[in-house]
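In the design runs reported in the main text, the only information available to the sequence generator was the tokenized backbone. The following block is the verbatim input for one such run; it is reproduced so that readers can re-run the procedure and compare outputs position by position.
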């Protein structure tokens, strides 16, 4: 089913200030980003018969490391806040 342009996304988004703080290395903001994506990472890392929950811990840790690396390399200056326009 295709959504019209008027329909709003129902996902909770991370606030821009959290992303901005995480990209500068703020450990609390990085933890907030990891917590936000925790469920998605767990789903991606779920495999058959790796542990009692089916989660491949090596893959989960790799995905978390990749998320942190990309967050730290994120250039927030290229994004203009709508309130500044």
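Verbatim output:
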């Amino acid at each position: 089913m295709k959504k019209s342009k008027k329909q709003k996304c129902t996902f909770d988004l991370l606030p821009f200030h959290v992303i901005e703080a995480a990209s500068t290395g703020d450990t609390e903001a990085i933890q907030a980003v990891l917590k936000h994506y925790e469920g998605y990472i767990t789903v991606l890392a779920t495999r058959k018969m790796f542990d009692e929950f089916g989660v491949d811990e090596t893959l989960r840790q790799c995905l978390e490391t990749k998320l942190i690396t990309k967050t730290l390399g994120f250039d927030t200056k290229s994004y203009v806040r709508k309130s500044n326009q």
